[in-house]
Design brief:
The structure is a single chain. By secondary structure, this protein is α+β, with helices and mostly antiparallel strands. It has two domains: about 1-65, Winged helix-like DNA-binding domain superfamily/Winged helix DNA-binding domain (Arc Repressor Mutant, subunit A), CATH 1.10.10.10; about 70-140, 2-Layer Sandwich (Alpha-Beta Plaits), CATH 3.30.70. The protein has helices at about 10-20, 35-40, 45-55, 85-95, 120-135, and strands at about 75-80, 100-105, 110-120, 140. The protein has a four-stranded antiparallel β-sheet. A hairpin with a 6-residue loop joins strand 2 and strand 3 (about 110-120). The longest helix has 14 residues, at about 120-135.
């Protein structure tokens, strides 16, 4: 199982970065400049801190959130029942797929939930089949019927 970060793992600047990054970045030549100015650190330090936050597991992904369906693609929520002793191994295999948008552990029989985002709807089944082949575990698919935007945000 993954370990919880110690209270000292994140300083006030790390927490500021995590909170600000959840609001998105401007599409400009220097997108980190406003955050760097607010934090009182150089832009290069913002980038190195983001890399460190990924390395220590404080953030699991850093990148754009694209609407695959608006571009002709597809999303699908997926779940797996992963034996606890294999969770880290399976998580690594699943997360290696470029189609995996995000992956979450849950305290439930279906303890791994992730989203597949593909360029074409038929690629959902292909990606799920590859994951099943690599892990030997069934990938349950829950296609979206209706979209709701809830603005989920976690305060660091």
């Amino acid at each position: 199982m993954r370990t919880t970060l110690s209270a000292e793992a994140l300083d006030a600047t790390d927490r500021l970065l995590i909170n600000r990054l959840q609001d998105g970045l401007p599409l400009v030549h220097a997108p980190f400049a406003p955050i760097a100015h607010e934090a009182g650190i150089p832009e290069a330090d913002v980038v190195s801190r983001i890399a460190r936050l990924r390395e220590i597991g404080a953030i699991t992904r850093f990148g754009p959130f694209l609407d695959a369906e608006a571009m002709g693609g597809a999303f699908c929520l997926c779940a797996m029942a992963v034996p606890p002793e294999r969770f880290e191994e399976v998580m690594t295999l699943v997360n290696a797929h470029p189609e995996v948008a995000h992956n979450y552990e849950r305290q439930h029989r279906l303890n791994m939930w992730f989203v597949l985002a593909c360029e074409r709807p038929d690629q959902i089944a292909e990606a799920a089949a590859r994951i099943e082949g690599e892990t030997g575990l069934k990938v349950l698919r829950f296609p979206k019927r209706h979209e709701f935007f809830i603005g989920f945000r976690v305060e660091a």
